[in-house]
Specification:
Blueprint lengths: L1 E2 L1 E8 L9 E7 L17 E4 L4 E4 L2 E2 H10 L4 E5 L7 H5 L7 E5 L4 H4 L7 E5 L10 H14 L7 E8 L5 H11 L6 E5 L6 H10 L5 E3 L3 H5 L3
The structure holds iron/sulfur cluster.
Iron/sulfur cluster (SF4) binds next to loops.
């Protein structure tokens, strides 16, 4: 089995409920969405392995990635992107010798069904924006994916909402109500540099039905990958 991966590296988790833990990051190429704040490569001819210093032609083998996972002294392995669900079959081919932490846009429920074995899910609830076509379909698929990958005794699932300074508060609350029973908490993540006033107001309202935290991207403050 082979997968398209843009880079492999070790760093701290900079977002969400596990902020600060050390992880091995497997960054998959490709995404089915096109968010305006996206800062990741859509495809790459090579996989840059920053752990070994190697540059490998894509697609790369599951055996290669497995060796990285087995030798990493980390809290967990972050499967990130791009959108890792697009390569769910490749992820299934890996042995979970470290806990798996899935970072997903939660837009492909049929692929989410294949990854029920992961230990952590950092799932997105997207805010409506011009670049996201068929937003209603995206929301329906998001609700389905959270239901499939909901929190259990062995899986910690939380919902991340990336927020600009201005957003539709009512719409976010209505969507969050559809998800609240499936997640441990919500994380409101300001777009880097945006004003926080409206985000704190939203937090107050969401606290009426769920644990809701405001956590920025810590790795950006620290200037690390
Ligand atoms: S879902 Fe993530 S990877 Fe995909 S376009 Fe949006 S920010 Fe980029």
């Amino acid at each position: 089995m082979r997968g398209r991966i843009s880079e492999i590296f070790e760093s701290i988790q900079g977002e969400g409920i596990l902020v600060g833990v050390r992880q091995l990051f497997i960054r998959f190429c490709g995404c089915n969405l096109d968010c305006y704040y996206c800062d990741t490569l859509k495809d790459s001819e090579f996989c840059f392995d920053h752990v070994s210093g190697e540059k490998i032609q894509n697609p790369i083998s599951a055996e290669y990635v497995q060796r990285r996972i087995d030798s990493a002294k980390v809290h967990s392995v972050s499967l990130t992107g791009g959108e890792p669900l697009l390569q769910a079959e490749f992820i299934r081919a890996l042995n979970k010798t470290r806990p798996f932490y899935l970072e997903s846009n939660m837009s492909i429920p049929e692929k989410a069904k294949k990854l029920r074995f992961v230990d952590f899910v950092a799932g997105d609830l997207k805010v409506r924006e011009a670049k996201l076509f068929d937003f209603e379909i995206l929301l329906e698929n998001t609700f389905k994916s959270f239901k499939i990958l909901r929190k259990t005794r062995t899986r910690r699932t939380f919902c991340k909402i990336v927020l600009p300074s201005v957003f539709n508060e009512e719409e976010i609350i209505n969507s969050s109500l559809q998800i609240k029973d499936y997640v441990e908490c919500f994380v409101l993540q300001p777009v880097f540099g945006s004003r926080l006033e409206n985000i704190f107001k939203l937090q107050q309202k969401m606290l009426e039905f769920a644990d809701t935290r405001v956590i920025p991207q810590v790795h950006k403050f620290m200037g690390v990958r």
